[in-house]
Amino acid sequence: MYITISAYHQKMLSPRVTLLLESITNRLHRFHLLPFLIKKCDNGKLVADCPAENFAKRYPFQIRYLWAIAPISYQLYFCFQIQHIIADKRGDQSHRFASGGWVLIFWIGYSWTLSVLVNFWIFEKDVANFITKFLAIDKTIGVSTGTSTRSKIEWDFIACIFYKWLGIIFNGMLVGIHVFNPNYMQYSTSYLTYKENRALFVSLTVIDAVTIAVGVVMMLYELALQSFYLLSTSQCLVSLRKCNLPFKEKVRLYTYLQLANRLHEGCFRMRIPHLTFTLSLCAIVGYIGMIHFHSTFGLFDLGGMFCFAMGGSVIMMGILHCFGYIVSGCKKLIRSLKEHGDKKNKVERRVIKVLHTFGIRDGPIRIMTYDGMYHMAGGTINMLVTILVLLGHT
To answer: Which residues pair with 5 in a beta bridge?
Structure first.
């Protein structure tokens, strides 16, 4: 059973974002990276479907598992490279950090890619159900509250950033580094030159480029899903608080948001700690390269460190801010219901007491608030300063 949505009558999500999400999801499904797709019914509505049985009958060997072989192989290769960098004490410190930093960043990236793939494969039906019902709830609240189309510009801007510009920048940067410096230790061509074996060198280059592209696309896809949900939920809470709907209608729509939050927890609860840790570690490595080794790095190395430092810190703080904003929006909405409700009505008073705030859980227990953002930022800065001090004394 599916909850259907219209592709052209969204209030919170613009049609451009909905169609972009549909096209990207279907392309990833076509390449067997996602086990679900978004299809259009005969009446013009969209549903998230998970044709697992047809996929298993059509591809008994499970081609999608081949995408997991590359990240696992690269992780083992990176472990060997890190051990080689630690054992080799003849090179200068900047060269060792550049090699170790890139190997660490690639190891983190491929670990994230593998975890994203596994999470989508394990919870394929839950993720498809979450996407379908989240879009349906978004449309219901948008129509009920009469939200203006002002936010469509913001959605289009965010979609372009995540799906287009960030993908182009990161793919172009990493592949460009490979083209100009194929002997870097994070690439499989580090122990081989073009003159020694041209066929093998070209094959390894293609494998590196494809694996990098898959990793960047899957990471940005998960980030986009998280961002769309967070920003849409925040906008829904603000619209519910400011609209003139009756008390019962506001409570009904608020329970829909709670349902979407429960579905989100079932799919991505254990992904949030990995997400924040990965972004924090990328920011730390990038800032160390920019601050301590900027005089010895080349243009591509310095540009790469700048992208990882800025991207990791900005995305991490933005997502953590949205986590806190959802909890704050829930409290403001419940407070508004309490202030504008009928205080003489016992039923409304009991309903308000039953309502509780919801948010994004960082693991099985904690709900992330603004304090979590401050603690995460403080811990990242503390670790960064500690490493810089240690490097200054060595």
So the answer is: 46
Residue closest to 66 by CA, chosen among 14, 31, 15: 31
The span from the CA of 244 to the CA of 270, in Å, is 37
Q: Token digits for 7? A: 């592709």
Buried b (16+ CB within 10 A) or exposed e, 254-283: bebbeebbebbbebbebbbebbbebbbbbb
In degrees, rounded to 5, the angle at the alpha carbon of residue 343 between the alpha carbons of residues 341 and 344 is 130
Angle 166-180/198-242 helices, nearest 10 degrees?
160
Q: What is the pLDDT of residues 208-236, one digit of tens each?
A: 888 888 888 888 888 888 888 888 888 88
C-alpha dihedral, 254 to 260 to 266 to 269, nearest 10°: -80
The angle formed by the CA atoms of residues 213, 194 and 72, to the nearest 5 degrees, is 40
Q: Binning pLDDT at 50, 70 and 90, where does residue 122 land?
A: confident
Give the bridge partners for 40, in sequence order. 46
| Residue 148 phi, psi (nearest 5) | -75, 170
Residue written as token pair 């309903």: 351
Residue 195: strand, helix, or coil: coil
**Could you tell me the pTM of the whole model?**
0.81
Q: How distant is the alpha carbon of residue 56 from its chain centre?
A: 28
Q: In what order do the strands lie in the sheet with 45-49?
A: 5-6, 45-49, 37-40
Q: 143 lies in which domain range?
A: 5-393
Cβ(131)–Cβ(38) under 8 Å? yes
Q: Which residue do the tokens 């419940």 mark?
A: 334
- Stretch among 5-9, 229-233, 259-263 having the lowest mean pLDDT: 5-9
Q: Which residue has tokens 């859980």?
A: 361
Q: How far apart are CA 362 and CA 258, in angstroms?
A: 17
Element (H, E) at 6: strand 5-6
């990242």: which residue's tokens? 380
Q: Measured between alpha carbons, how far is 147 from 268 in angstroms, rounded to an integer?
A: 28
Give the rounded distance of the alpha carbon of 41 from its chain centre.
28
Q: How many domains does the chain have?
A: 1
Radius of gyration of the chain (CA): 24
**Are 300 and 186 within 8 A, CB to CB?**
no
Whole-number Å distance between alpha carbons of 370 and 98: 34
